[in-house]
Amino acid sequence: MKEEQKQPLFQHHRRRVAAFTRKKFTKPAAYVILLLLSYFFGYLSAPSSNSQYDSPPVGPRIAQNRVTQDTAAADNDHYRFTTQCGAPVPSKLVRQTILDRLFNGTSPYDNFPPAHATTLLRKKKIKGWGSNGAVFENLIRKVQPKTIIEVGTFLGASAIHMAQLASGLGLKTQILCIDDFRGWPGFRDRVRDINMVNGDVLLLYQFMQNVVHENATESVLFVPFSSGSALQQLCEWGVFGDLIEVDAGHDFHSAWSDINRAYKLLRPDGGGVIFGHDYFTSADNKGVRRAVHLFARVHGLRVQIDGQHWVIHSP
Ligand SMILES: C[S@@+](CC[C@H](N)C(=O)[O-])C[C@H]1O[C@@H](n2cnc3c(N)ncnc32)[C@H](O)[C@@H]1O
Ligand SMILES: *[C@@H]1O[C@H](CO)[C@@H](O)[C@H](O)[C@H]1NC(C)=O
Ligand SMILES: *[C@@H]1O[C@H](CO)[C@@H](O)[C@H](O)[C@H]1NC(C)=O
C-alpha cells in the first residue's frame, strides 16, 4: 500500500516543481533541470512491477496500513454493490432460518450418507491451505462470534478448525459455509483420492462426511451455491455474520466481488471482522491483495496482516 500512497504525493510534488521551474528559469539549462527532475519523480512514482509482493513482509508480524478515502473512485460503477439487506435475523434463529430456507426445515445431515455414496466417500479426507493459522484463534477469541460466514470451504478444513476453536472456548457458534463445492477446473490433479461420478466430484458429500466425522454437524451448515448469489441471498434474508472469512476465487474480480458483498453481511451494529487467505502466499499476485487494497482505499479502512491472512475490522 505504501507504494500506492506515494503516487499522488509525488504527482502533486511533480506539478509544483514544474510550476516553480517555469517561473524561475528561462534558459536552456532550466529545461535540462526540468527534464532531469521530471525523470526523477516519474521514476519514483511509476507503478513498480509486482516485485513489492514477491518477498515476504519484514518487520513485525502484524503490519498496519492506513488507507485513505478515495472519493473520485466512488463515482465508478464498479464500486457499487447496492443491495439493501433485510432486517437482521437474531443469532439464535440463524440456524433454523437456513434450515427452513434451504433444506425444507430438516437437517441435511439426517440419514447421511445416502446408500449410493457410502462406498465412494473416505471416512475422513480433509485438506486445506493455511486452514489452521493462528489468525482463526486470534479472531474467534477477540470477536466471540455467534455467527461465522465462510466464503470458500472446500473440504471443510478451516470451517472444522473454527468449529473446534469455538466449542473449545465454550461458544455456541453457527458456521455457515458458502461454496459451490465444485473446486476449480483441474483441482483433482492436486487433491487426489476424491471420487468422481458421472462428472460430479463429490466435494459436497466429502465435506459433509468430514463434518460428520468431526462431530460438527450442529455448528457447521452449508450454503451450496456460488458465492455471488449466496451472499446476495443471505443479505436479503437478513443473515449477518460477526466474523466472515473470504477464501473462494483468488482472481481479482472474484475476490473483489466476494469482499464487497461479504462486507455488507457484517453485523450492522459494528464490531464485526472480515478476513481472508492468500495475502502473503504465492497465490496473492492473482489479485487478492489488489482487491483488498482497493476495497480498503474506497472505504477508508485499515488492513491488518496476520500470518498469510488480511484482516479488516468494521467500524
Ligand atoms: C481455497 S479453497 C477454500 C479452502 C478452505 N477455506 C480451507 O481453508 O480449507 C476455495 C474454495 O472456493 C470455492 N469457490 C471458488 N469460487 C467460487 C464461487 N464463485 N462460488 C462458490 N464457491 C467458490 C471452491 O469450490 C473451493 O472449494
Ligand atoms: C418438506 O417437508 C414437508 C413436511 O414438513 C413434507 O411434507 C414435504 O414433502 C417436504 N418436501 C420435500 C421436497 O422434501
Ligand atoms: C465424535 O463423537 C463420537 C461419539 O461421541 C466419539 O466416539 C468420537 O471420538 C468423536 N470424534 C471426534 C473427532 O471428536
UniProtKB/TrEMBL annotation:
Ranges that cross the membrane: 29-46
GO biological process, one term: methylation
Signal peptide span: none
Keyword Methyltransferase applies: yes
One Pfam family matching this protein: Methyltransf_24
GO molecular function: methyltransferase activity
Presence of the UniProt keyword Transmembrane helix in the record: yes
Domain of life, per lineage: Eukaryota
Keywords, alphabetical: Membrane, Methyltransferase, Transferase, Transmembrane, Transmembrane helix
Cross-referenced InterPro entries: SAM-dependent_MTases_sf
SUPFAM superfamilies hit by this protein: S-adenosyl-L-methionine-dependent methyltransferases (SSF53335)
PANTHER family in alphabetical order: S-ADENOSYL-L-METHIONINE-DEPENDENT METHYLTRANSFERASES SUPERFAMILY PROTEIN
Protein name: S-adenosyl-L-methionine-dependent methyltransferases superfamily protein
